[in-house]
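Lab notebook, bench 4. The sequencing result for the construct came back, and we need a structural model before the next group meeting so we can plan mutations. Quick request posted to the team channel:

Model the 3D structure of this chain.
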Amino acid sequence: MTDGFEVPGATATVLLQAVVARVTALADRLGVEHAEVFDVKRLSAESGVPEPVVKALLSGRPAGEPDLQARFLQRLDLLRRTRLKPNGRRYTQQEIADGAGMSRQQAGALINGDRRPTMEHCDAIQRFFRVHAGFLTAEDSEALVGALQRSEQELLQRLADRERAAASVADDPLERLLLDHGVRGIAWRAAQLPTDQHRDKVAEWLDMLLESVKRPES
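Done. Here's the predicted structure in token form:
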């Protein structure tokens, strides 16, 4: 450790590179913009890692790792700025103390950096702000990996939903017909016809087409 900064472990760096690659591949498969899944502001708020550090880590550049005390103060400050009360105001030291089960003096000393936090302090404050375990203590690379893994799970769920919907359409001839022929396009074109007689002809044609692809019996 030097000047309050530690060199992040190689394992966390490898894990970060791997999850970035997986999230990138999923985003490409789903047609999701990289700017959405790698939104620096969102990832910073979810991980507690400062935005400049998030940018550096995502681009593969080394970033100094604060020691536990500095990390705690930095992330607690982020929580107080981003996890606000329903009225949009910050929680006071007294409210944090009451919610975390400690005295106002203890909370004030922790917030001001006059006291080194214990794991019990961290757990209590994390519960109060309703963030995941380790939010206040995880190394930057590890914290960012966790945020990206949650994004990965969301993308996997979207992919599963899409594949499930596609399979449902493929199993139903009627749904496949409506999809292949573009129902909205047909309706729009029919609306442009000049008379009801013309539209009746379109309806007759559709009835014939639908009759030829009846739904399979359940």
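Confidence is low (pLDDT under 50) at residues 1-8.
Will bring this to the meeting.
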